Structure formats: C-alpha cells, structure tokens
Amino acid sequence: MSSKRRKPPRRDVRLHEEVTAEEGFVWTRKDLLGLDELSPQEILHILDTAESFKEVSTRSIKKVPALRGKVVGLLFFEDSTRTRMSFELAASRMSADTILFTSKGSSVSKGETTLDTVKNIEAMGVDVFVIRHSQSGAPHLLAKQVGASIINAGDGAHEHPTQALLDIFTIRQRLGRLAGVKVAIVGDIAHSRVARSNILGLRKLGADVTVVGPPTLVPNAITAMGCRVSHSLDDILDEMDVINMLRIQFERFGGGLFPSLREYSKLYGLGAQRLSRCKKDVLIMHPGPINRGVELTSEVADGPNSCILQQVTNGLAIRMAVLYLVSPVRE
Amino acid sequence: MKRLLTAQQLDKALDALYDAVTADMPKKERIAVIGIRTRGETIARRFVARLAEEYPKLSVDFGILDITFYRDDLAQRRGIPLVRATEIDFDLDDTWALLVDDVLQTGRSIRAALDALHDFGRPQCVRLGVLIDRGGRELPICADYVGKKLSAPAGQRIQVKLRENDDQEGAYVFKKA
Q: Considering the domain B2-175 in this protein, what is its CATH number?
C-alpha cells in the first residue's frame, strides 16, 4: 500500500481545531506513561498547572510544601543529565524527598531484573517513580505491577512525555496558540521518543506537524500519526512557525543510516543561511544535548530565535506539575 | 439548596466588613490586601477599588493567594482540579496585611494561607477579614473583622455567590455530598 495515500489532507479543518480547557476538569490518573493515552483536556490540564508552578520558581523562597513527606524515586537505567536534574529539582521545590538509582554500579550488573529492582525500591516506601529505560514499554509494564505512581522519563524509542509537554508549553508561551501552528521536527525521527511524543501531543492540540529527515531516518509510515513527511528541509523552511531540531545520535552511526556526518549537516543542519529563509520570528527548539555544528550552528543555537534555554526552564515547571498531579491520586 | 442571604443582605455584610476594617486600619502605613482564591479574591478586589475611591492617598497593594500547595488534605483528594498561580508582585515586608476570604469555618484554609504568605515576605502584621463566620473551628484561628456571623451545622456547606464569579449575589446553604 502506498503510504502517500494515507497522508492527511493539508486543509483538513479538524487539523486546526482549537482545544480549550473545560471548567471544572479534574485530573485522576495515577501514572504519566505517554501522550498517546492522554486526552487533549488532560494535556491542557498539565500545561495550565505548570503555568501556576512557574510562579513558584520566581519567589525568593522557591519551595512549596505540596509533596511534603512524599518520596520520589528517580530510576535511571539509561544516562541523562537534564531530565534527571530537572526532576530532582522539581521534587525538591515541592518538598518531596528523592532517592536516585542509576544502573551503573548497581545490582543490575548482578543480573537483577528491572521489575525486581523497582519492587525492592518500592518496598522502602516510595510514592512516585520517575523512570528512564532503554526498553520501550518498560514504564507501562511497571505501572501494572507496582502500586506507586510511574512517570515515564523516556522509554527506548517510544515516548518521552515530559519533554514533549515542555516543548508544547514553550510553543504556547512564545506564540500564544497551538491550533494551526506549523511545526517541523527535523532529524532521526525513526528512533526518537521526543519526536513521537511531540507529534502525538501537538496533533491532539491542533498543530500541524511535518517531520523532516533522510528517508532512512524518517519512515513514511509515520504519516499514520497524522503528520506530513518531507525529505528536504529547504522545501519547508519558509512556511514553518517552529523548527524543532533533534539531536543526531552518534551512537547510531555504525548502522549506516546516512553516509556521513558532513553530508547530514549540509542537508539537514540549520545555520544562519537557512535561518534567513525562515519566517522572521520562527522559533528554533532543541531538546538537548546539542551537537554544535551538526544540527545547529552556534550562531543559531544562541541567537534570538532560539528558545533552547527557555525549554529547560519550562521543563522544571512541567515536571513539578506532573509530579504534583500524579502523586496524591489513590483509590 | 437554601438561600441564607439575599443580594441586599450580602451587600450589608460586605459593608459591615469594610467598615470594621477601615475603622481599625492604620492610615499611614503600606496596606496589602490579599484575597484567597476564588471568592476571597473577588471580595478583596472590590475592597481595594472602594479603598482607592474613599482613601485616595493611601498606599494599597493587591495580591491573590492560591493555597492549594499548602493544604493539609491533598492526599485525601481523589481528583486534582486546576491550580492557579499566586500573584503577589509587590514587597510584602513590613506591610499591614489584610487577608480576605469569603467563609470562615475550620480555619484550615487560613492556616494554609498564613504559611503561603510567609513564603513571600514578613508583613508587619497580618489581619483576617471574612465575609461570613459560620463557626465550626478546628484550629485556634479567629477573624479580626467579620461581615456577618451565622451558625450552620457541620454537615452543611455555605456557598457565597458573587456577580463576578457566578452572575448572581447571595449566600446559600446546602448539604455536603
């Protein structure tokens, strides 16, 4: 079957439908596993809650007692800097205690299964687990097996919900709307959990998403998620409101998915010249860590169109909101 | 749902609260009027507008407090409604601070509000003004200024309705679900 036929029509009215927050909506989920399972209302509820948490970070006493006495377990079976520190700080701003687990130097090397590791840590009295794992679906499996709340902080190539939420939050903050906003996500779409969560979330809130990259990294089947595909960055530059540049994952280089870094950078990197052909107020995003000179030149990454550091700041508010929303809900 | 106060009676209670506060309020110091979301905010807003009219020389700041993060019953709630931001964008230190709420019952909201307020600064003093005091305290807290005293059994809830929030004015009593 030709995947081209499955492309959603570009002028579909439902594509630009604006979702507004319902009065009196209440959050009832115990876990945050991905944006796939969330309704547009639930996504908006997280964004709006984060809006209130932003204020806490501007106070001279940057701490509220909302999660006093709760324990947040940060389980990082895979490396992370930003996400881990962001969750850790978010938990401490809400007066929760944190315990940190990284698979390096732990019993994982002795052959303990993920489930056993988590159940043992839960037995110490943990209320919320923040989990990053290289296996897609690991947080979903754990959510069925443990009583504590589970927050997915990135699972394999599946989802990274808090990253997408902070991206969407930043877009809404900068542009004041989401419906009809044209967003390009550029890079290794096939292996990117950030891309998947972003597409899911943005589509639910009515944004128009185009994914861009070489054919080996952008499967055509991804149009089933309701986005457009382009293999040429130059073709779509001028119509985009937001360009989200994903990190090129050096660890995948051996796979022969593209000929050379130089070629990739030439075709899909964003420098001053390409930026000059974009809309004047285009928003340049990157989930970090940046490979300077590969997907973004320093001039663009540090320029006025970039909101990369704002994304990091907003990430804290999003994670405070998510920790707050999932933790007290119990049957 | 039964009506406790008509629009006129509510107006009278608001006047009584206003008079009690202005009789006691220092006229030379910086005043901070802080409303607790949602109805307390509305009452405080009206209050500040009236102060500006009748005491144009007075220095009055207006703030809004959302006490959700400071509540002691978070763990008992089943769903989480939207939290809104606290807005105190002035220097609270050394002000004469008036905390405003619509109904005073257990005193737990006020406890939470005092904790929240002290994360923003150190007022010279804090006074509490409420539109309705219905009794039923669970903490040693009492209001300095009261618009109307009522007594209602513990199982009943008193709800104040204000034009800005509910398109109508009055106070109602109903059984808790």
A: 3.40.50.2020
